[in-house]
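User: Structure please.
Assistant: Input sequence and predicted structure:
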Amino acid sequence: MANAKAMPVNENGNRRFRKDTLKRLLRYIFRYRARAVVVVLFIIVSSATGALASLFLRRLIDDYIVPLLGQSNPDFSGLVRMLLTMAGIYLVGVCCTYLYNFVMSGIAQGVLRDIRDDMFSRMQTFPIRFFDQNSFGDIMSRYTNDADTLRQLLTQAMPQLLAQTISIISILVAMLTTSVWLTLLVVVYVVALRKIVAVVTAKSRMYMRRQQKLLGELNGFVEEMINGQKVIKVFCHEEQAIRDFEQRNEELRKNAMLASRYTNILMPILVALGYLLYVVLTIVGSLMAINGVTNVSLTGTGPLTLGMIASFLQLSRNFSGPISHMSQQLNAIVSALAGAERVFTLMDEPGEEDDGAVTLVNIAYDKDGHIVESEHRTGLWAWKIPGKTGNAQYVPLRGEVRIENVDFGYLPGTTVLHDVSFYAKPGQKVAFVGATGAGKTTITNLLNRFYDISSGTITYDGINIKDIKKSDLRRSLGIVLQDVSLFTGTVMENIRYGRLDATDEECIAAAQLANADGFIRSLPHGYDTVLEGDGSGLSQGQRQLISIARAAVADPPVMILDEATSSIDTRTEAYVQRGMDSLMKGRTVFVIAHRLSTVKNSNVIIVIDQGRIIERGSHDELIEQKGRYYQLYTGAFELE
């Protein structure tokens, strides 16, 4: 991704996380601020109960157990009350833990839904260039793998980190109220612990980021292999595909192993150091009590009692536990931030620029013959040009297209089209002929403004297309592509994709126009047959017929047919051509075709070679010239 290359680098050569990643996550959480406040309150109560219970342990031993020792008739009523009080404290802690996890799961799923919604909405604004330059599998990985790391962050890591932080603070305060001397030993332990955590987390962060990147690349590779299974089998490429996959998978395994190793090694180290701290505190506390060392605490000075030592040891166990858990959560946060960074990098991709102000509107004519804008579909269209004084100008949509002196290249420094100029009058059929890679499809991409020209002008009914809002420009153009894309849903829904407000009758009429009605009615459920997997149950020709019907129901004034009949056999092509001729009647049509028999009746045939127009004219005129078109038509020169 382009944005990822500009990330800051630290002194060790490892990229730091973008500073705003966590802030942006928090902004999503703040959309649920009321529930988040409730979660924080429950976490505070749940975390504080552990420290409070340890303080009660000191009172339980010094005030209720030790005085009963040696008594012939001990009174256990006070001890029972204290035990019930401690049980109540623990019960409150358990309830609060359950409640904050319950509420947080709802917040987490809401945040993930919002992030996916925003990511998908943002993706709809991306230019075609973005999808040409990025693997579909890597994009999908951001919706699945990277988003799943955020789920773990929100449901587990962040609540646990907050809970452990509050626990550590409350336990530290409880320690200081018990013994300052013993607390100093714990502080030394924390300082040493911090250095260990910093080293291990830095390594973990590096390998986690690599793991997420490699996982996205592996998904992209698998997606390519699935789409290309026929080609793989035809060319017996299975063994090489397996080797390529194993190589990528092995690289992922190595990075995932190192990421897991540094993630998992920290917990055993911290547990061992926690036990070591427990032993040291036991020895030091015992020596202080035996030697009568004066104990200092926030509540005053005095002897170090058995209850204080037992309480402090319990506090130390409770203190080292949260630190160990925090280290685990920090690693989970590192992994989640690596995923979040990829998600936000996708969302930060620049969207398609659109500074056009001219819109496409439905119109009608009043009794005086003046254009009146209509809110309902009338079948008549006009370009609405906003005026400086507030009065709009209406230009009837006729379908006149002019391209003048256009240069274009997909990449800087590389020119694909050179000084291309031509025009199409309303209702004309213009055909582009030339070898593969000559620039035919590139011209239609420029008409749609999938890409913007480097120099020159393209006008539509006398209006520069840069001044037309892109959505309105594309609404006026109907396209039938060589590569058909069908969507999961019924046949009727796929046809209606061309115009969402089309009635069933209009969709059926469009199918009849494209000569698709016959085979559609022969499907198990006719127009209600559900298509799945891009219409994999249909032949390529049937899929193309549905695509043609989809364009027909849109009823645009300009049609672009990019190898529209390339996937249809010659017999079916003759059958479809009648519907295509009806579809093209009264419209400006741009046709790209390798079969020259399909462009004979075009008003203008333009021959393109290496991005330049070398011939133009009608079929008869070009045959008479005996140039490149003549060679192509007679077979003297084959298309590559």
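The chain has three domains: 3-209+264-347, 359-396, 401-634.
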